[in-house]
Amino acid sequence: MGPILPTTTTATLTGVVDALADVVPVAALVVLLAAAYRHPRAWLEAGLAAAAALAVLATGRVHSADLRSEREHLLPVVAFLVAILVVAECCRAAGLFSAIGARAARAGTPVRVFTLTFVVAAVTTVALSLDATVVLVTPVVLGAAAVTGIADRPLQLVCVRLANVASLLLPVSNLTNLLAMPRLDISFGRYALLMAPAWLLALGIEYAVQRCWFRSELAAPVKQAPTEIPTLPWTPLVVVVLMLTGFAVSGLAPAWIAAAAAVVLIVRGLLRDELTVGRVAVSAQTGFALFVLGLGLVVAALGNGPLGDDLARLVPGSSGLPALLALALLGAVLANVVNNLPATLLIVPLVAPLGTVALLATLIGINLGSSMTWSGSLANLLWRRTVTASGGTVSSRDFHVVGLIATPFAIVAGVVVLKVWSGIV
Fold first, then answer.
1. What is the C-alpha separation between 151 and 386, in angstroms, rounded?
2. What is the pLDDT of residues 258-269, one digit of tens each?
């Protein structure tokens, strides 16, 4: 029979184990956010996510019920992410974005080009999610700026700002919305109806602020318009419209509809030699999909620790306007501290019991607030890399000043109009 440890020693060991169980998820989240910032190769990104998930599982903070919940909530979201990225790549390969960009470049004055770019970025975000805007639209508008001689600063900033701001409207426009949908108990159409006024108001504020901030650049004359306008590929456009219609009326999970659209566009692209199987595989970004799954497990462990308890104490107990504003502020702050996806996973279960309007107000804070700092949204980091790879120059001053001016007004106005509109409809 081995020696029996003294009670004090046992208590000390237990305290050390508990402390490690609290520290490991925090360290794992820091590692994953650093990886998101650096965006390593896909295999390394997936490997880090797997290692982080295994580390938090070893602490015992993630229970079997948590695993089932993560599987039910995250797998459909990740499947949709993979499918919509493939759809977006098929649209790019077909020339849809370059054709739209060339037409925007022929609009005439810089203000008209800017306005059309604003509209294109908003529509792309709504239909194909924010990642498609920062990765696929950004190079197109930079090319349009180079051809016309318009300053590229306002055009490229539109892409990253609208990627976050325009993602309020539909559940499929942002992963944060999709993650919250299972707890909202409303239809796709009802979600859009409730969010539409806040979305329009946020777009209006964003447009006014950017027009004012870039007034000197937008007053310069256009040097020349593009001489060749690519033919607009109608098939991808029709497929995307049908896909959005399916989201609204079919009742099927968005992942299935997006997958069907992806299959149609893949077959078309392969037959027309616009795509290769390898390119389709790369566009699916499976490494990032695994990263999101690993991140979900890490956040589940955080939610079961002291951080979850602290957040629960900060969540208001009512759904009046002051409480809704507090929830939006909490969502915005959390998104900028730990990124928008972890913020959503942490706060949505705590806010859901307060009802639909409270959860939508929280999403307004998360989606709009994540545009204020580089770390607020993965889309911000993707945009930085895309601009650099496309030969542009990232301006931290533009990004942060416009964000600090526009975002607080948009959040407050959006929550107020949501509260009023939800009482009407």
1. 17
2. 999 999 999 999
